[in-house]
Amino acid sequence: MNSNNNPYSSRRYIIVGIIVVVAIIYIIQLFSLQILNPKYREFADSNAFYNRTLYPSRGSIYDRNGKMLVYNQPTYDVMMTVREMGKFDTLDFCETLNINMATYHRLEADMKDKKKNRGYTSYTPQLFMSQLDVEAYGVLQEKLYKFPGIYIQSRTERQYNYPNMGLLLGYIAEVDQRKMDEDPYYKRGDYVGKSGIELSHEKDLRGEKGVEVLLRDARGRIQGKYQNGEHDRSAVSGKDLKLGIDIDLQAYGEYLMQNKIGSIVMIEPKTGEILCMVAAPSYDPAILTGKDFSTNYLQLVRNPYKPLINRAIAGNYPPGSTFKPSQGLVFLQEGIIKEDTRFSCYHGYPPLGGRPACHGHASPLSLQYALATSCNSFFSYGLNYMLNNRQKYSNTAEAFEVWKNYMVAMGFGYKLGVDLPSESRGFIPNSKFYTKVLGRQNWNAHNIISIAIGQGEVLTTPLQIANFAALIANRGYFYAPHVVQEIKGGQLDTIYTNRRESGIDRGYYELTVNGMADAVTSGTCRGTYLGPELTVCGKTGTAENPHGDDHSLFMGFAPKDDPQVAIVVVVENGRFGATNAVPIGKLMFEKFFYGEVLPGDQYLEDMIANRVILPNVYIKNSRPKPIIRKDSISQNSDSTKVIAIN
Amino acid sequence: MYQANNEKIEKGSIDWISVGFYLLFIIMGWFSIYAASFDLDNATSIFDLSGRAGKQLIWMGASLIVAFAIMKIDTSFYETYALLFYSIGILLLLITLVIAPDINGSRSWFVLGPIRFQPAEFMKFLIALALSRIFNMFNFKLMTTKNLLLVSTVILFPALIVIMQSETGTALVYLSFILVLYREGLPGVILFIGLAAIALFVMGVKFSADLMGMFSLGEFINMILIILFIVVLIWAYVRRWRTAVYVLGLSGSIFLAAFLTSLFGIKVDYSLVALIALISVIFYVIYLFLRYRLRDYLWILLFALFSIAFTESIEFAFNDVLQPHQQMRIKVALGMEEDLQGSGYHVGQSKIAIGSGGLSGKGYLNGTQTKLKYVPEQDTDFIFCTIGEEFGFIGSSVIVILFLIFIIHLATIAERQTTIFGRVYGYGVVSVFAFHLLVNIGMVIGLVPVIGIPLPLFSYGGSSLLGFTIMLFIFLRIDQTRRRL
């Protein structure tokens, strides 16, 4: 204990110092690992917890009479956990799955590609191949012991009982990256509604996925439930939907519309429920399920008649003469005309030298007769007097805004809010629009006179016209049209149960209804006359089409005093309303009221069903071009362009 | 300082603080082993003798009996027979080398019927005893050629045999006795050279791939390090702080000139600047030697030149001398590779396990990573993971601090020894415990390459536990019977 014995005594401080410094570095490292770096926790969870997703069954869809339209059938996905895969006979595996080696490598690369599959880890089962057919499933199940790391996950696939209303029902497909980014509920391999009811009622139909938290050891063996399933959540099945659609009516409408382009929409005026919504051309919903999805989808995309567009809600047409009742109602309400106000017509509108032109009928004439005979001159006078009425309005623009507001109240110019995606709003111009387009402040009624007869700038969707028919049938109110009548265990959106008023007196509607009844008994829609006991009210329309034959329109409802159904028929290039739309309207009425076509009209049914009205289209190079998966909205805008020019 | 305290300690009594630490560690180790080998499916009792914890319990009992026995044997017994024990140890190592079966690539197990142990574990305290005995010789001076050779042989010969048994980790443990030598008069410059070599090696390897002008970034850093080493050596050994400042100023001004040049838009290769600075410094040292004729300057010059040669040969040594798996382990430890599938798997999983513990951990027996066997060797070399995962930052840093206190306490005991024998043995114990602790935990938290050595008193294993127990209790026995002043 002295300097002799212990000359280097002070070195103990250096020795201890080195150990202390290293220990401090270690504690700092521990701090950084355990406190500063949350990623280790996530790593650990993804290591140890295997969240097995429990898929709920998607809701089924029924028609208004309880007939099942859409249901589910089991299908099988092949899952692969790369880390657990030992060496196995890849060739045998491919044969079992009915794929070749190239496909195997492509699927494997797709699965491992973090850009395409962001959730990829080699520790968890990843979707390798979806929708194994039942035979391949059976074989694979037997051989599964040979393929370590391969699992089969069963889920369900949509099945359809009827080959109809593909556009309306929509389809489901694997969720895309954008949807996953928007809503973290969705994971790769999930199926999601892409169009139609499947999309608009996605949240009702899909249910809620459940999860089973399992513990998994380093070799991927499941070691049982984590904390006895305390963290598990069982799947909640999707809700079933009952539609307002009558599938027989729908199927019949599609039959009549075959080889034609256009729409039929029928609405129950008392509720706003859509009884049928035919958009032609359409497709069998079953073709967009299963393994042939991509092939068939490509076919539909390339089809020049654009069968993926639901024209009933996304097609924009000039309403033509079906617009006239709305004009009469506005003029009456605003006091521009009275029940017995008569205007003259000399094969056209006299102040503009017979433009717009009209056909031969008695003159001068009152509103009721003008509706029955669909006089262009009468409504042109009406609009002219309204816009130039300086006692009521200080200028044209103000008068025009009043006009526009009535149109909007009657359901034109904005989306009605139908429970389907890609609804178009149509177009009702306002005064600013004309100021801009005509390039001057002092435009007048004569500049825009054609909107009074549903031509010119006005555009409507078939659904809006059908809704307008329901509005007249109800004498002044409507419910926003909707396809889903009831969500089992859910609540319908209040916009479908709140009555919307048009702000026009009921009495004026009676006058309009009389005019439309006259049109059927003695006017332009004699083709829909169904006898004295079933009074049909109707209005034809012929929408001018600068690119080909005019579009044929019919709007109506029946019976007159207790309306059960309102209808619109649009046949593109079908020329006069009476030529195609009216007979189709008549047949649809018969089907609706009698369940079948009257024996005397069999010839009519055959004639209409066999009629082909398709414009010639230039088939472009059909070589595949890169398909940009458009979402419903851009598809909609696309259709707007095409049809607006037609 | 210690002398004053010594008088107050109860004379002839056992150092109960150390015994307390020992019992605390083996009991915590026992619980950790139970947690680490806990099987979720069929959890067995901690006392189940077929389980790892049960077996460890037997070893703990055996260790306590051995410890008790050691405390009953006279100290002179160890001193007298130190070299004999050492020779027997060497003999066992050699026999093992011949007869050992291959167990997981290691040929270190001595198997004789039901007895199975690793002589290399017991060699640790045998070397410590032998060193103590040698240093305790009358008027022993370390810094003579003969004695240095003797001491080096005592350490390096068993190390060589153990390396041949493929237990490189244990061989490194023997090298930790260099701390004992340092404490007993090995020039600090040797320790300094050792640390300098490690620093140059680490920098040279870690930054060998990044290019910087005509040299790699590693070479650039090393040139600057060599300049700094020269400054430190002049300061510490020649004791001319003014000269040291001149050297610093010389190289600094060269860099400053280069920086000013670069302001005029001339592209400057700083690695070339570093080379110029280094050469200037070397010439300055040559000038100093010629002027003052001090031999220290010659040594510094030699050190500088060897360092440069060392730097240049690092890449060769790394790529051509080391085995690929060793290269990989070093790269993983230096953070150059995040190889989670291969060599990095151990460390990656152990960092995940520890990191997932968070502040206070998942709770005893609730760790998922260790329970589900993601961490390899989890009840032996990687047992610290279980603690890190289940007791979090609080638990794991408490263990590190407890160990640190324990080691400092052992150093304190070593310092209060009245015999050189006792002190040298004490520092042997300190070196071995400290090396095990620092390398084991450093490895588990990813700061040190993976070297398979256990955490003292925690890791599962009879040889290891018995080895540490004997080593510690011989020391406590020596302490108990030390001559009081």
What does this structure look like?
The complex is a heterodimer of chains A (646) and B (485). Chain A is α+β, with helices and mostly antiparallel strands and 646 residues long. Chain A is built from 22 helices and 18 strands. In chain A, the strands form five sheets. In chain A, strands 2, 3, 4, 5, 10 and 14 form a six-stranded mixed sheet that branches. A five-stranded antiparallel sheet of chain A has the order 12-11-18-17-16, with helices on both faces. Chain A has a three-stranded antiparallel sheet with strand order 1-8-9. The relative contact order of chain A is 0.11. With 485 residues, chain B is an all-alpha fold. Chain B folds into two domains: 331 residues, no CATH class; 132 residues, no CATH class. In chain B, 71% of the residues lie in helices and 2% in strands. Chain B is globular. In chain B, 43% of the residues are buried.
Classification by helices and strands of chain A: alpha+beta
CATH superfamily of the largest domain in chain A: DD-peptidase/beta-lactamase superfamily
- Binned, the helix content of chain A reads 25-40%
- Please tally the helical runs of chain A, counting DSSP H or I stretches of 4 or more residues: 22
* Secondary structure: number of strands of chain B: 4
CATH architecture of the largest domain in chain A: 3-Layer(aba) Sandwich
> What is the terminal separation of chain B in angstroms?
14 Å
Rg estimate of chain A, integer Å: 33 Å
Distance between the termini of chain A: 111 Å
pLDDT < 50 stretches of chain B: 1-10
Which structural class fits the helix and strand makeup of chain B? mainly alpha
Please state the CA-atom Rg of chain B, rounded to the nearest Å.
25 Å
CATH domain topology of the largest domain in chain A: Beta-lactamase
Overall geometric form of chain B: globular
- Tally of helical runs of chain B: 19
Mean pLDDT of chain B: 86
